[in-house]
Design a protein that fits this description.
The chain is of the alpha+beta class. It contains seven helices and eleven strands. It has helices spanning about 5-15, 55-60, 105-115, 120-130, 145-150, 155-165, 230-235, and strands spanning about 30, 30-35, 45-50, 70-75, 135, 150, 170-185, 185-200, 200-205, 215-225, 245-250. Strands 1, 7, 8, 9 and 10 form a five-stranded antiparallel beta sheet that branches. It is globular and about 50 Å long.
Amino acid sequence: MSRIGTCALVVALACLAAPALAQYTPLFVIPTQSTAGVTLPAGKAARVRITSVDAAMLAHSLGVEVPAEAASFEYLIDAYPQLQSRAERSWLEATFMVDFDQAAFAKLKEEMKGQGVRVERAALVAFVDGLIDENFARGWDIASVIAERRQGDCTEHAVLTAALARTVGLPARVVVGIALISQGSEHAAFGHAWTEMLEGGKWTVADAALHGTDQAVRYLPLGLIEDEGVGYRMALAGLTRRWVQSVDVLEPQ
């Protein structure tokens, strides 16, 4: 993924969103427009128009069928989308990227135990949020490196959350996509990474990077990181055809 310098990014956000939204430093900014006066309080479905390099492929992954030549499509962000994996797996195993079997995790597990961290999504998310210092110079570190450095952005939050979830027997995986953040009638869409945990047979958002935000956040996963081997960065590059060029927030129907 391309990264934008912190200073330039703050300037870009100031043009796109209210000052409160500029507190979040994402992977990249997605141009966002909205119909005047549209508000999206938490818990309310959002209707958006998504423009993408390959709109038909992205729409299909989200369960919407559009003509192959379509440049954009409308989508209702309501129930959290369930991306399908290409292969059956437990999402509990240690891998090259999510290498929680390394020595660095022994100390983390002791810290979790000492702090009384419960084996549940909310507790793990809060623990990771308090553990990682923001450092936007990092770029998709593997879990053991994150456990040692304790620095990073949303990608490091996501990888470490997945690793800690698996250490305690909770299936977890990392996705990349859009975070649509709203406050009042101001809306901004950003490239983002987060963790999904399996609960009750459904994948649920576990986002340590945006933990505690007072803005309404809606998540739209665009791609699942299935290849967690030594070539995981190449797998990430393969998701670029799904990147979104713009988001229009529309009037609710």
